[in-house]
Amino acid sequence: ATFALANAELGINNLQATLGDLATGGQLHASAAWDFAAHIPSRASIDLHGITLTSLRSCLPESIARFLPSSSDGHLDARLFITDAEPGHVSAHVDVAAPDRLQLAKEAIPASLDAFIPYAGDPDIGPFAFNNVSAGATVTWDGRWTSLPDVTGGRFSTASVTVTREAGPEVLLTGIAAEFAFVRGYARLDDFSATLSHDVQTGGISAFARYDVAAHALASAGITLTDFDLGTLLPWLPSEALVEGQHQRGGDPPHR
Predict the structure, then answer these.
(1) Are 239 and 122 in contact (CB under 8 A)?
(2) Other CB atoms closer than 10 Å to residue 166's CB: what's the count?
């Protein structure tokens, strides 16, 4: 890197580094400046290529890292650049992508996200495999390492998510898209849509949710299912769930 100090501002340019092992670690490229008078970063542009979730977590405050999976099989690309900075208020835009396959073991998903994972308590569930993940959002932070940032204008998409179960066939979600936000301790999921496939059956899903992080509880949620066979839905539910209604296929007895 090159650096300069002038007018109470330290500027670092063309910073290059490897996160993790030199042979397999991800690449970091960054330029930034720190305003000593205002105690804030006055500008920053950070590009990460081929990093792992483990390396990313190690660079973040614990208040933020606890919401990320602890490990993954696969690599990410990410970009962050500051759009506005003043004392007590820093805004940045963040983009994250996993252009190839990203696999998460159930054990790697943090407890803080259990309420969003249908299989969190199901011992039969294997890894979650994501293909072509893309996400972006605006992040606003007060500059204190112990506080959580607000996230607005979030968008998420992935070509497919495959969930394996020891006791049954794989469940496949395709064409997933959603908007999300995290503001004042509440996580929000809007305009979620996907196609759920199981065996030869398919159906459409749309959903929204509001989650109180401090209380670890859903404040509200709604799901709409379109063109669904009940047999398609049953493998997607946790093993302790009960669906009212009956489903019968061929000579099989009805499922309740």
Answers:
(1) yes
(2) 9
Q: What is the pLDDT of residues 184-216, one digit of tens each?
A: 888 899 999 998 876 656 788 899 999 887 787
Query: Which distant-in-sequence residues (6+ apart) come within 8 Å of 123 by Cβ?
Result: none
Length of the chain: 256
Using the structure block, give the residue that is written with the tokens 């495999």.
129
Furthest C-alpha separation in the chain? 81
pTM (predicted TM-score): 0.76
Q: Measured between alpha carbons, how far is 1 from 19 in angstroms, rounded to an integer?
A: 15
> What is the C-alpha separation between 103 and 126, in angstroms, rounded?
10
Q: Which long-range contacts (CB under 8 A, 24 or more apart) does 215-219 make?
A: 216/112, 216/115, 217/115, 218/115, 219/186
Q: Which two tokens stand for residue 125?
A: 């569930």
Tell me how far apart the terminal alpha carbons of the chain are, to the nearest angstrom: 64
181 three-class SS: strand
In terms of Cα–Cα distance, which of 80, 77, 107 is closest to 92?
80
Model pLDDT for residues 129-176, shown as the tens digit of each residue: 889 999 999 999 887 777 788 999 999 999 988 877 666 667 788 899
How far is the C-alpha of 141 from the C-alpha of 148, rounded, in Å?
A: 7
Among the listed residues 2, 21, 23, the one whose alpha carbon sits nearest the alpha carbon of residue 11: 2
